[in-house]
Amino acid sequence: MQQNIRKRLIELQDLNYRDFNAKLLPTVDKETIIGVRIPSIRNIAKEIAKRDAHTYLNSNLSQDLFFEEKMLRGMVIGYAKLDFDEQLKYIKQFIPSIDNWSVCDSFCSGLKCTKNHQNEVWEFLLPYASSKNEYEARFAAVMLLNYFVDEHYIQQTLKVLDSIQNGKFYTQMAVAWAISICYIKYPILTEEYLQTSTQIRFTYNKALQKIIESNQTNADMKEKMKVMKRK
Q1: Which in 2, 27, 66, 230 has the greatest CB count within 10 A?
Q2: How many CB atoms lie within 10 A of CB 205?
């Protein structure tokens, strides 16, 4: 099955797109990028999820050698009609294979099951938030910004985001992004958090930068953020 899927992906190869994508993925070996556009991968994922999800998800994860294969598996986990415990099992199995920001963020955005199981997913995420692994911690941060910036979780989310300080670039960039989303949705609470934040300077200033650059913040908000930057 995996060989047939790889063959299909290669048939969809666009070399110009591969070269473009490689520039966006500096941590990924270009030789492991086929060059398949996301909508095409998504179509295959939906087909697998509908027809044969269990067979595919029980196949050997270590045989996903290409960027697109990892992207595809993450999408299938999100699309597959599974009971929650089973879906969580596949999520846990997949996380260690995440090795770039793109697979991480796509995977997180597809885990819509979180909306109906917030409490369980929250508990599941906490160990990853404290991980020293760059993409495990990024996974936690991106999940927080996607599903836990709401009235019930905002205070807890800010507290967890403040604790994620492993110093890894793609982790800390996700934390900055998440803090900026918190500010856009809950500016008063997030400004109060920023005034006492223990987050490292790089991440703190990146969060302010993202808020300043956002089209969803007004001139007064932007000026406040400029004043709050750490030297």
Answers
A1: 66
A2: 17
